[in-house]
Amino acid sequence: MPAQSEIGEPDDGAETARAPSHGVVRVLLIEDDPASASYIAGRLQAIGWTVEVSADGEAGAARSVSGAFDVLIVDRMLPGIDGLSLVRRLRAQNIHTPVLFLTAMGSVADRVGGLEGGGDDYLVKPFSFEELRARLQILARRRSVQEPAGAILAAKDLVLDRLRRSVSRGRRDIDLLPLEFKLLEFLLLHAGEVVTRSMLLQQVWGFRFDPQTNIVETHISRLRAKIDLGGAQPLITTVRGAGYLIAQA
Known about the structure:
- The strands form three sheets. A five-stranded parallel sheet has the order 2-1-3-4-5, sandwiched between helices. Strands 6-7-8-9 form a four-stranded antiparallel sheet, covered by helices on one side. A three-stranded antiparallel sheet has the order 10-12-11.
- The protein is elongated, with a radius of gyration of 21 Å.
- It is built from nine helices and twelve strands.
- The chain is of the alpha/beta class and 249 residues long.
C-alpha cells in the first residue's frame, strides 16, 4: 500500500462491497506511481468497477480517445505529457469523458487551473478512498444521465453503441477517430434522410460558415474506407447535388 502521506488516513472500515447504482463504472487511471496505482485500482476493482492503468501521459492520452471509459482519474505530474496538458488536448479533440484530477498539487491556483483546464473535479492527496469513490460515482452517473436516448444506432449490419463509444460491422470491430465517430453517429441519427454538407459542417464540425474546403468529402471517404472494408456492401450513398444518405436498419 502507498505510504500514508500519499493516500491519507485509512477509511473507517472497509468499503462496502456493492456496485454503483447505475452499473459497473469503467475507469482509466493515469498515474505513474506504481504503489498509488495499485492501491486505487485494487480498491475500485473490489467494489466491482473495471480499471485500466496508464503509467504516463502519452499512453493515457492515447487510451482516453477510445471513449471506452466512464471517467478518467488523472495525476497532474506525469511523464511524457503532464496531466493538465493531457486534459486540454482531450477537450480540444471534443472528448468530454469526465475527468477527476487526483494530485498532490493542492494550492488554490492549482485547483482553479485544473478545473479551468477541463477537469470536472479535483481531489488532493492524501485523500479518503470513500470520498474518491463518491466523487467518481457522481461523475459517472452524470455522464450516464447526459447520454442521449437511443444508445444503439444501426444500419444493416453496422452497429454503433453510443454508451460504449464502439462501432462494429458483422463480427468486425471498427476503430474510428472521435470525429469519424461523431460523423457516423450523426448520419445514423438521420438514417433514411438526405444529410446536406451544410448540416454536417454545422452539427459535426461546429462551423457556422462554409470554409470552402473538402473537409466533409475527405472524412466521408475515410469513414467509408473503414466501414466498407473487405468489400462489404457500401452503406453511405452520395446524393448528387444534395448530400449523403445512409441506409436505414
